[in-house]
Write a structure and sequence with these properties.
The chain has 81 residues and is mainly beta. Helix content is 10%, strand content 33%. It has one helix and four strands, in the order ββαββ. It has a four-stranded antiparallel β-sheet with strand order 1-2-4-3, with helices on one face. The chain is elongated and about 35 Å long.
Amino acid sequence: MLTAGRQDQMPLHQSTHSLSPPLSRPAQVWLCGMPHEYSEEDVRAYWEECGPIESMDLLRFKDSGRFNGAAFVTFKTEVCP
């Protein structure tokens, strides 16, 4: 199962968001549960369906350097198209 979570998420009672429309600003999310065989291109191709990607930081195992199935992905905007 692929999962995603906003790194800056807060509980609802602590939210500082107003009812105004969302801003068009970068949004970094934590993604995990991806196959260890995925390449950077595979991760980008899969998650670009959620919007244009500004940057990615794929986490790797220290001993082998292989992708460990988790990444931080920064989308160009926080609004999904």
